[in-house]
Write a sequence for this structure.
């Protein structure tokens, strides 16, 4: 495990704070109330995460045997974690579709990392995968808290059940992979890279599960999560950052696609969910230029950089881009992979060193 000087898991949510802030100011209390409660709950969980980091989390027994060890719990609309166990590894599906989706999503994530990259679970050493569903009431988020996945049911007005998009499950679990490898600082450009890597692997998990090529994929993060009343298709678009939604209540998707529109802000940990659109778009460009299954070449290059030991905690976009060019050359030689990766970064305005 490479942590570059410290194992510091962070609290990572799929819905950015700027989206919930916007909702919290809505005139309709049915929209503002759940958003405010979600922001309060997120703040509490974030503080708990920091305390656990200082005190130390309980050790978890892992068996590196190439098979997942999944457990799904039900919070029963409370906030005590992990909650009541409702499905263990190998148990048959029950009547609760949310439980079944969470179980399947954990498995799909495990399979992608094992089959495509030879990684045995999140930590590479068979870490058990735990999830809690039905967290709180009208909770508008899903998160990785450094130890497990947690899913809200959504308020039904803006967000639906957070287990619906499999890439949301993959995105949050991928934060765990970053936690156990490069451990990127969750602020500014390193934080945006942290978020982007989760979007990349979340997208790959969805594509792997559906058997899609890069050309067939929609490159949306969170498609199916927005309720019918929302004017939008997803939380983010890797193909066209800034176009995922444009809604009277949510506002317009603020993600930039290139460095020309890089957003400088002190909110959202320096815009980690906003500026992640730039490396997201670079990956999309590289993957679609290469064609075929995105996890086989572009995904392999990104994975090599994340786990190779050279990516520093405070890496900027240019640092990451430079390492992808190096990784493409080392794995595939001076061929189309190197050309596609180099051109992708050039197109989004990130210079390689």
């Amino acid at each position: 495990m490479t942590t570059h000087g410290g194992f510091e898991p962070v609290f990572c949510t799929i819905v950015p704070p700027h989206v919930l802030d916007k909702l919290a100011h809505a005139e309709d209390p049915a929209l503002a109330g759940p958003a405010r409660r979600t922001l309060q709950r997120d703040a509490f969980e974030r503080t708990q995460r920091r305390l656990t980091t200082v005190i130390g989390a309980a050790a978890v027994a892992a068996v590196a045997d190439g098979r997942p060890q999944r457990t799904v719990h039900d919070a029963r609309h409370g906030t005590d974690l992990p909650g009541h166990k409702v499905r263990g590894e190998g148990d048959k599906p029950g009547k609760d579709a949310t439980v079944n989706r969470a179980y399947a999503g954990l498995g799909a994530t495990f399979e992608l990392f094992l089959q495509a990259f030879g990684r045995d679970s999140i930590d590479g050493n068979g870490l058990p995968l735990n999830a809690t569903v039905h967290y709180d009431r009208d909770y508008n988020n899903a998160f990785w808290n450094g130890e497990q996945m947690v899913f809200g049911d959504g308020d039904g007005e803006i967000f639906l059940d957070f287990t619906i998009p499999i890439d949301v499950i993959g995105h949050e679990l991928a934060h765990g992979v970053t936690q156990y490898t490069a451990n990127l600082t969750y602020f500014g450009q390193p934080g945006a890279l942290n978020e982007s890597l989760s979007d990349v692997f979340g997208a790959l998990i969805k594509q792997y599960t559906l058997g899609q090529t890069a050309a067939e994929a929609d490159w949306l993060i969170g498609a199916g999560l927005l309720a019918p009343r929302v004017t939008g298709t997803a939380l983010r678009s890797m193909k066209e950052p800034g176009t995922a939604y444009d809604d009277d209540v949510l506002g317009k998707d603020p993600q930039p696609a290139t460095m020309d529109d890089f957003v400088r802000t002190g909110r959202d940990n320096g815009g980690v969910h906003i500026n992640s659109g730039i490396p997201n778009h670079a990956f999309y460009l590289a993957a679609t230029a290469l064609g075929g299954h995105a996890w086989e070449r572009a995904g392999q290059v990104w994975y090599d950089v994340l786990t190779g030991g050279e990516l520093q905690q405070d890496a900027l976009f240019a640092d990451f881009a430079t390492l992808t060019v190096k990784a493409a050359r080392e794995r595939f030689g001076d061929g189309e992979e190197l050309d596609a990766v180099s051109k992708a970064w050039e197109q989004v305005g990130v210079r390689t060193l």
Notes: The longest helix spans residues 29-55. Residues 1-7, 52-58 have pLDDT under 50 and may be disordered. The chain has ten helices and ten strands.
